[in-house]
Amino acid sequence: MSKVAVVYWSQSGNTEAMAEAVASAAGATATEVSTFSPASVADFDAFAFGCPAMGAEELDGDFEEVWNECVPNFGGKPVALFGSYDWGTGEWMETWRDSATDAGVNVIDCVIANLEPDDEAIEKLTALGKRLAE
Ligand SMILES: Cc1cc2nc3c(=O)[nH]c(=O)nc-3n(C[C@H](O)[C@H](O)[C@H](O)COP(=O)(O)O)c2cc1C
Questions:
Q1: Which of 8, 16, 81, 85 best tests ligand 1's pocket when mutated (most atoms within 8 Å of CB)?
Q2: Does the structure show a pLDDT above 90 at 1?
Q3: How confident is the model at residue 124 (pLDDT cuts 50, 70, 90)?
Q4: Ligand 1 center to residue 105 CA distance, Å?
Q5: Per-residue pLDDT reduced to its tens digit, 18-61
Q6: Residues with CB under 6 A from ligand 1
Q7: 113 with 86: CB under 8 angstroms?
Q8: Cβ(4)–Cβ(48) under 8 Å?
Q9: Looking at ligand 1, which residue's alpha carbon is closest to its atom 3?
Q10: Which atom of ligand 1 approaches the CA of 56 most closely?
């Protein structure tokens, strides 16, 4: 079974709820991004990184700083992206996925939820957690 890191940033709890769903299915612990060391990427086999749409369809700045430090360390290991949004169309996730892919990250899936994750989103996140842990 793979050792999975679930790392997230959340202001009002929606992306945190998504992280908890992935982590519980993956047998992992959801880790708030400020307590995650990019050097510890080497200790995990698979990853789920979560951040809501902030700014104008952007990642949170503190999250992005840690994410950027992790990118060169992923190698070909599988990475899933997730996050919550409100009034947009998910543009921030498309931009994030494209820039990650361009940087050579092996993005295996992206899950977005409008505000609090509903049952359908939780199902997707649970399936994702199981897949990462395989
Ligand atoms: C400062 C700020 C900027 C935001 N920018 C966007 C945005 O560009 N597009 C969007 O769809 N939602 C935007 N939102 C809404 C959040 O993405 C949404 O409330 C999300 O559920 C927050 O997730 P969280 O509970 O994990 O913090 C923004 C919210 C805040 C507070």
A1: 85
A2: no
A3: very high
A4: 25
A5: 999 999 999 999 999 999 999 999 999 999 999 999 999 999 99
A6: 10-16, 52-57, 84-88, 115
A7: no
A8: yes
A9: 54
A10: 8
